[in-house]
Specification:
Two copies of one chain form a homodimer. Chain A contains nine helices and nine strands. The first copy, chain A, has about 280 residues and is α/β, with parallel strands linked by helices. Chains A, B: GO terms for molecular function: carboxylic ester hydrolase activity; S-formylglutathione hydrolase activity.
Chain lengths: ~280, ~280
């Protein structure tokens, strides 16, 4: 399927480009953005960091607000930011900001009406990387990162498909969605009421059984309004107790849940991934 | 008049805060944002860079998209970003994006109905700096910068009030508004048809007669869609021919009019101002 370029701008001596395309995974149109660093070309393919955004976001939030480009350009890392769900009039939706369009939770839905389009896991793990490899000068090296719902996505996808990614990082991830209101609402809708089906999408559950060697960096603001009720980083720290690979969760004093927080530490995350993407 | 805090977030180890307040200059409510670097306190007041935004912008665009905070924190420079006009149901407006609310052009309007509220020159030059000095740990040292309509504002205000500012910079300024559609529409409405009243707000006119010693840095993308019709940097270069102080206008190949362009070069601008704000 061809990519349709919908916007482009030179930035940090590289390029930011937005595309839409027909997705076989989600059975409809998807949008993504890519940052290509200045050194990316056919003779010099670059590694890719996949960035998964949070609730209500599109492909644009990270690219406009994260202040990531100068460091990504310096390190020679491409960044791909997909939309957070399928969209459109024929795509199931909900009145809440935390379910439906803008809130795909990076799962493959099994329940009607969601299962017709909400196959975000397949899109992120399989279809999108194939599309990126076929259309841009990128290498096989991939890492994954995200924020909030996207932090949940980065952790669960990175752990479950550890052979596909070199490293994982997250800002303010939903660390134990089986036991928080956002996660329970989404999993009930997308996966049904059988909680045995939820475990494969819970970062704390997956991490406690993780055998892979996969470096993980997490930043969490201690003034985040969602910290205690929705994010539950302590559960993730406990689940990481037996890991053999590097795991660091940094509580950042004074910071909240916003892109002001992300923009403060994104350079650290890019340098973290850069160690493993060479 | 008291300031009302409407939002705050820690960023780059400093603070981003938004305030609204009753403005005597514009005879109504105004909103501004401030970035305070981590070293700002009563024992260590910091210099201020005033940032004037372009058409359609509010106080938020620069703060969310410019990627300025890490460098401003490092240099110890506060940044103040006012809204681009008065706003509200009782404030005159226009159906176009280039006149009325969001398009104050940093002038003191003399024509009805605009003159009731559109006194943005007084607000930027007088009221806002007094408010900042009274409420935040800042020194007397000020510089001014802006984008597009705000580049026009930074140049005209900086040149006309050269004793108030240490340095000026601009991205993609409207350099000769008397002779471009955006400027002519705004000046006709705000200042009337007598073009002798327009000269005091035209950067090229002012610069050609400038006796002050005032360093100026300008960046302009050569793929800017507004370059030939609206921005006219060549007129400004010609007007700068007899300046005795540093003047540099850099044509940046491949860049457009967006915040992707601004975010690429904002660190250069902050370091430029930093030389004069010590």
């Amino acid at each position: 399927m061809p990519l349709e370029l919908i916007q482009q701008a030179k930035v940090a001596n590289g390029w930011h480009k937005r595309y839409k395309h027909q997705s076989s995974s989600v059975n409809g149109e998807m949008t993504f953005a890519i940052f290509l660093p200045p050194n990316a070309n056919q003779e010099h393919p670059v590694p890719v960091l996949y960035w998964l955004s949070g609730l209500t976001c599109t492909d644009e939030n990270f690219m406009q607000k994260a202040a990531a480009f100068s460091t990504a350009a310096e390190l020679g890392i491409a960044i791909v930011a997909p939309d957070t769900s399928p969209r459109g009039e024929d795509v199931a939706n909900d009145d809440g900001y935390d379910l439906g369009q803008g809130a795909g939770f990076y799962v493959n839905a099994t329940q009607a009406p969601w299962n017709k389009h909400y196959q975000m896991l397949d899109y992120i793990v399989q279809e999108l990387p194939e599309l990126i490899a076929a259309n841009f000068p990128v290498s096989q090296a991939k890492s994954i990162a995200g924020h909030s719902m996207g932090g949940h996505g980065a952790l669960t996808i990175g752990i479950k498909h550890a052979d596909g990614y070199r490293s994982i990082s997250a800002f303010s991830p939903i660390a134990n969605p089986m036991h928080c209101p956002w996660g329970q609402k989404a999993f009930n809708a997308y996966l049904g009421s059988d909680k045995s089906q939820w475990r494969q999408y819970d970062a704390s559950e997956l991490l406690s059984q993780c055998q892979a060697t996969l470096p993980i960096l997490i930043d969490q603001g201690d003034q985040d309004d969602f910290l205690a009720e929705q994010l539950k980083p302590d559960t993730l720290i406990a689940a990481a107790a037996n890991l053999t690979s590097p795991f660091e969760l940094r509580m950042q004093p004074g910071y909240d849940h916003s892109y002001f927080f992300i923009s403060t530490f994104i350079a650290d995350h890019l340098r973290f991934h850069g160690q493993y993407l060479v």
